[in-house]
Structure formats: structure tokens, C-alpha cells
């Protein structure tokens, strides 16, 4: 966005208006996330500036076993299980979908990613009714199954996208050199699509870790997850320990952002060398 | 039915269709002999790659059968066929080092680690890549990648090696160098090679035999000399090497020789390669190097008046474009300087050729 | 190339292809089965639950049968009263009557306690005539509207939930009419849901379009940094972002502190637990969903085009409208629909930042499902929401096919 040298007055006004909007937009996006971080180090219990002093007391609350560490543990158990299942099922499906044509392929693809298109409340409602009938309400297994439903489309999409640029001659080469199909998959295909699989896994992990609506519907007191505890905390007793947890999660998402950028950069590099 | 002992692969009435309507390979009957270098030569889309893929087991044959050592390959999966393949884009595994790439087939065969090391190193030395084992494929030049692919296809001493335009991505000089190297490897190792190319020069210099394909059909199988000097039909004559083709009608035949009347009224004496009867349409095929300009009196059975249209300098030879018999695209090739300075555009000349070198073929 | 000899070739070809297709399909099958059973099935079952009405007929089958046959014009006969007495008696004894009473209460509030009270006193009725005895216990048993409510609840299927979701109800004579005012809240929720989504989208466009343009036209380094600024909130937990706004927007929060300090206002503004807060937080959460697809499209518009248009004599505004905007429309369209669809389903943010009058359809679904246990109503509203989204989805597909190359996520 550059102003031409011979800009008219009107252009100047427009230019600065747009710059102002952009500045506001970026501030608006990042400001709130940044501004709350220092509050987590406050020694007082008010959620406003100026801070009465600095301390780590709210982080000490956070590492108490109850409620936060309990919720964190639940969240991690569920997220790890979700990631493993969703990544396995999603990668297999994406591989099968790109490997050969069969009738109804577009329809199947659409069906597999449909949980993305349906508002989460509706998915949660359907899952809740279903779980109520099969006895999965208020179980860890139920929560994991529900999260796999929500997370698996991301795996299918990222792995399919990676496979689109995949050189199937490599599989042929591997087989011609004596590798049975399964060996060819694990020794050649999987290592090469690993960035896509990993990106899908990260998406799945984040989806589960951040999910609250389904958790509100199908989980019980024994399955309280971090987002659910945050939800309750925000509604009932608002204190800086929530901000401390939020800060930890912000740092975590920064790290994930870095990981995903790295993965995309790496797969882009691989892709560009494919046809040499 | 027993095959002659030297036949390694036999295609019997093989057909292939991808869409159920068009046969991209049709009525293929071909034998590949043990130890020979057989090239499939043909224009783009003629079905060469398809034949290799069927042989390697990546495409099912729609009809007919392929036998290796007289045993049908129908139910043998690719990974048990024991054929080394060199792909056009090499298909090196980008996530593995050169060493690991070459070791791959041996690892699959559970060869002992010390043996692997030894064999891989021998193979890399063989293709002049000793010491580059730790590189990744993308750290190599195109020619080096090509050699890795070659080493990988040879290291496990496969029953035969399939190469699909392996030199297509290289520049001309490198390509010629690699042609020689591959030929040497073939001579040294005595392996059987099925080689695909659409470059006729490559096919002629490298092969023991050449199979010429067009539209899914084999047009002719023979030694390079045979397909060049004795093309079986007009397509082969036109596709392999440069060729002057004249259309005409057979006027008379006497033994191996016949006379053909061109549309311009000129009468040409030629050798009948395919039997044609009187009154039948025919194509005359004449290689440019067989056409002499101002030949000594009595040397050639055919003599015509012509005019030089253009002389193009080609280094070792000149290419002379001539006008005769109502057309202006007749090509002659003469050694550089052979004509002195008489070869000037517009100059009238006499041209001639012996009936021996002019072949009568059926129209395509 | 020639045609294959016979159709047997085609058969063989099919068989070979089918084998490969089949092994590929086997890889897809586990996930497909999983999604069908755990997701597609349950979503479809919402349709069933929205018309399923088993409560009364389970507990009081005889009554249900009699009132179904009854025309509803005048009070039913003695057999209906006899059935009610007997079935309330047994239902009260084995504690099943409460479910039926609950169902009746959907029709007329107060019916539940009326049934339960009748159950408590049912011992006093020892023999016929039941009609007089029952009216003696509670005179409302002589009121025909209560009998019509029983008829409406007699099941086993009903359209009442679906009709109620659009503020309609079925009268005792079978006609469909507008529901009484105390129950006409659902259309208002629907309108509000669309209204909030619309304004959130409008704000996103106004802020997001220039932002995407800036990112797309900046140098490599700057654009990477700016993009990271959009991606950071995109990756941050929705609850963390909502929490941030709760902290910021309080009466004594940072935003008000700033406004007071800058002298823009004299006393703190109410920014939370009202519509303003909901708009602010939702725009914050959805803005990246507009910026990212827009950016993906703008990046592919050749930068020389505006200059070329200018060199051909176009004024800046004309050049923008005729050259730049049309090329970014697919991305803008995709982003808009994405933001709109996502905001239609919002639940957490309005629940935490909005007041009672800022809740959207999702809130109703959650309330009915988890708090009042009214599966029928929850399903009916879910179908309403799903239809709203489904109506927009083909548009989104069309726009994305139109070549943005952006994929969700
Ligand atoms: N997987 C496929 N599906 C459908 N048709 C195919 C497929 N592969 C090849 N064909 C068709 O089969 C015919 C022969 O293709 P093939 O690849 O064997 O040709 P080729 O001789 O190797 O050509 P080139 O020299 O260009 O590599 C072509 O018409 C091609 O379009
Ligand atoms: Mg080919």
C-alpha cells in the first residue's frame, strides 16, 4: 500500500483513513491478548491497571491440584487420545481417498469433513442424545469420541492437501525395488507426507484442547476440562488466576503457531523440489 | 509351448485400455531376449510407458499375457517381479540419502548390513558417485541424480532393468555422455534392458534391437541397422532418421526391382521392400545421404534435373534443399565442402540415386 | 488405436479397477463408519427427536388412545375419566406419572402440579362415576382446554416442537395458528441471531478488507509479521480471548480506564453483559476468518494492475472498483459466508459477555437440552439453525470453487 508520488489531496485522505483502520484492526486483534498478560503477575486481586505490585501468587493458585491442574490433566488426556485416533483415522482415509477413484468419492469426502460445517452446538446435541442412549455421557471415552468427530476433518483436509502434490512414482519405485505396499507406505509415503500429518495432528490437538461446547453437553464433574473450567470460572468467580491460565495458554498457542509455520515452510520446500 | 532358451519376457496378444473404449496398446506380441538391450521407440502417446508399467506390474493387462521365463506374471505383484526401474523423473526418495536410496532394495531383501555397504559402494563407484553417499538427492545435479537412480535399479541384480526416458530431463551433452555410460554398463553387466525413448538417435546408438510403436501398435522390430536401412513401412521410414518420401503408382515390377511413376510424371526405379502389384499406390523412401548431387555419369540408375533452393551449414555436413519433380522440399546431405562452391541457391544441378537405396513401401 | 475386441474386455477392466478401488475404500471405511455412526446418524436423529412424543403414551396408554379418538368438541365421556384415574393411580404409585405430567406442562403451565396433586389425592376416588369424582378433586378436570392439552400430547408423534420453533402452534381442531405471545420467543431469537451475525460481518468487512490489502501489498518481511499478528489470535483459545474481553470490558476494566483517562467519557460505559460487548468480542474472534481468505486471494492479484489501470486513465476509485474489487470478490465472498455461518452458531461468547437479551439460537438449544431436558424443543431449534446454515453453504462452496484456493483452517 504505497501512495503515488503525485497523489491528490483526496488520495491522501483515503490513504491515511485506511492506514488508521489497519492500525486499529491490528491493535484490536493483538491488544487484548497482550494487555491481560501483565495482570496475571499482579499481587492484587483486581483485574485492572495500575498493578498494586508484582507477584506469582496467581500462578501458585494455578498449580494447585484443584481445580486447574485436575482440569489440565483431563484436557491433556482427552487431547492426546483424540489426536492419536483422529490422526490415524484421518490419515488412512485421506490416503485411501487420493489413491484411487471409487464411486461417491466427493460425497464421502464431504461427509468426512461435514463436522466442520455444522455449528458445534448442533453436533454437541446430536452426540449428547446418542451418548445418552449408549451410556457414554459423563465418560472420558465419550468425550474423546466427540472430540475425534470435531478434529478429524482437519486431519483429512491437511493430509489430502499434502497428498495432492505427492509423486506416486515414488511408491512405484519403492515397490519395484522390492517393498510390499505396506512397507512402501511406512518407508516412503508416510515420511514424505509427515509435515501434513503433523500439521493435522496439531490441528486435532488444538481442537480438542480448546473445545468447550461439547464438553458442556457430554462431560460430567470427573471430566472437567480446562476450557470448561475456564467457562465456569468466567461465569462464577472472576479472579487473576483465570488470567494466569490464559497467559499460559497464550504462550502455548504462540509455540503452536511457530510449529505450524515451520511445518508449512518445510512442506513447501519439499514440494518445490519434487519435480527436479 | 516352450520358448527358445534366450527369451526372457514374452508378451502374448497383450491389450490395454484405460477407459474401456480405446486400446492404447493393441495386439502386442514381443519377445525380449536375455541380455539384450531392447528399445521401445515411438511418438508421444504411442503406449510405450504403458507397456513398461504393465511389465513392471503397475498396470494390469486388459487382455493377453506377459510371461517372464515362461511363467505368467499375471498374479505376481510388482514388489516380487525383481525388475529395476529407472523413472523419467528418477523417483529418488527425497527424504533419504544417496546411500539409503541405493541400499533400499537390499534392505527390502534383508541382505546383511556389511554386504549392503559393500554392494552399495560398488554400485556408486560403478556410476562414478563414490563419496557422495551422504548427500540428499536434492543436493545433486540432474546427471548425478540420474546415476543414483541407475545404481539403485542395478544394485540388487534384478532380472531386468526398465528405463522410461531416463535421459529426458538432461541437456544434450550430458545425455550423450550418459547414453555411452549406460551402454557400457549394459555391456559389462550383461543385464537385460527394456528402454523407452522417443529420441530415435538414442534408440539407434544404444540398442541391440528397436521396437517401433505407433498408436499402440508395433510397427517393426529389428536391429538399428534393419529399421534404418530397411524400414517396414512409411511410418517407420519417416520416424527413424531423415527421409524423403515420394508418392507414386507402381508401373512395373521385375524381381526385387520395380518402377514407380510419380505424380509429376517422372519414373523412379527402386527396390521393393514390401511386395506391391502393378497399378498400386506406393511410397518411395530415400535417405538424404543416399542422394548424390552431380553424380558421375552412369553411376546411378535414377537421374533427375533439380535446382538448389537452400544450403544449410551443419558443421560436418551440408544440408541441401532441392526443387525437383514439382516440389521443393527434397533434402540431400553432402559432406561439408564436397560440392565446392557450385552449391549455390538457384543453381541447376543433376541429382541421382541408385535403385538399391530407394525403397518402395506401402502407404501408411 | 482401435476399439477393444469385445465387451468382455470392459468387464475385465472394471474388475481390475474395482479391486484397486476396493482396497482404497477399505482405508476410508473405518473413518466413514465412525462418522456415520457417531456424527451423521445422531444429526439425522435430531429430525426424529423433533417429532418424537412418547411420554404420555408410555405412561397413560389407555387415556392416549381414548383422547386420540375423541373429537375435542365437548368434554370426553366417562371412559376417558376412568382411564385417567386408573393410569394416574398406577403411575403415581410407581412414580412414572411425573414424566407424563412434565409433558402436559409444555401445553399448559400448571398442568404438572395439577396432575401431581391429583395423584396425591387419587386414593379418595374409590369407584365410579369417575367424571364427577375427578372434577371433585380438581375442578380443572372439567375444563375442556385441559383435555385438549392431553389430546395434543397423546403422541406418539407430534409437530408441536417444529411449529413452536417458528412461533406457531396447532389448535385442538387441527388448524395451525400463531402461538400465544408468551411463547412467541423463537422467531425473535432467530431474527436476533441473524441480526447479530449481520453486524458482526459488516464490522469484519470494514476492518478486515483494508487489513488484508495491507498484508497483501506490503513487502515480504512486513507482510509476514502482519500475518503473524492475525494468526496469533486465530490460534489462541476462544475462551482465552473471551476471558480477555471480560477483563477488558468490565466497568472498572482497562477500556473504561483508558476512556476516562483520555477524557473521552465522564463516567464508565457499560460495555459488558450487553450487545456492545458481544459485538466487540465476536468481531475479534471472527476477523481472522475474513482476513485470511481475502489475503489468499489478494496475494494472487498482480500488483501492477492498479498501476496499469491508472496508466489507462482510470481515476483511483474507478480503478479500484473496476479492476481490484472484482478480482478479490471470490475471497471476500468466501470470507463473508464463513464468518456469517460461524457466527450463526455462536454460543460461548454471548453466554459469557452478553446479557439475557443478547443470546442466540445456540443458547436456546443448550438450555433446552441440558437444563430443562426438553429434547423435542432442542432438536427443533437445532434443525432451524441447521437449515439456516445449510441454506448458505452452497453459496460458500460456489465461491470457494470460484478459485480462492483458501481452505478452512
Ligand atoms: N492412467 C491413464 N488413464 C487413462 N489414459 C492413460 C493413462 N495413462 C496413459 N493414458 C493414455 O494412454 C496412451 C498411451 O500413453 P503412454 O503414457 O503409454 O504413452 P507414451 O508412449 O509413454 O508417451 P510419452 O512419450 O509422451 O511418454 C495415451 O493416449 C495416454 O493419454
Ligand atoms: Mg511415457
> CATH homologous superfamily of chain A - what is it?
MetI-like
How many beta strands in the DSSP annotation of chain A? Answer: 0
What's the assembly state of these chains? Answer: heterotrimer
Global shape of chain B:
globular
Beta percentage of chain A is: under 5%
| Top-tier CATH class of chain A | Mainly Alpha
Helix and strand composition category of chain A: mainly alpha
Q: Specify the structural class of chain B.
A: alpha+beta
Work out the helix count of chain B: 8
CATH top level assignment of the largest domain in chain B: Alpha Beta
Bound molecules: adenosine-5'-triphosphate, magnesium ion
Strand fraction of chain B equals 35-45%
Average pLDDT of chain B works out at: 87
As residue ranges, the low-confidence spans of chain A are 271-276
Q: Based on the coordinates given, report the CATH architecture of chain A.
A: Orthogonal Bundle
Q: Compute the separation of the termini of chain B in Å.
A: 34 Å
Largest sheet of chain B: 6 strands, mixed
Interface with most residues: A-C, 91 and 90 residues
Question: Which key terms come to mind for this protein?
Answer:
heterotrimer; A: 276 residues; mainly alpha; MetI-like fold; 11 helices; disordered C terminus; C: 409 residues; 2 domains; two-stranded antiparallel sheet; 2 strands; binds adenosine-5'-triphosphate; binds magnesium ion
Give an overview in words.
- The complex is a heterotrimer of chains A (276), B (364) and C (409).
- Chain A has eleven helices and no strands.
- With 276 residues, chain A is mainly alpha-helical.
- Chain A has one domain: MetI-like fold.
- In chain A, helix 3 packs across helix 6 and helix 4 packs across helix 6.
- The C terminus of chain A is likely disordered.
- Chain B folds into two domains: 229 residues, Rossmann fold (3-Layer(aba) Sandwich); 119 residues, OB fold (Dihydrolipoamide Acetyltransferase, E2P), CATH 2.40.50.
- Chain C is mainly alpha-helical and 409 residues long.
- Helices cover 72% and strands 1% of the residues of chain C.
- A two-stranded antiparallel ribbon of chain C has the order 1-2.
- Chains in contact: A-B, A-C, B-C.
- The complex binds adenosine-5'-triphosphate (ATP) and magnesium ion.
- Adenosine-5'-triphosphate (ATP) binds next to helix 1 of chain B.
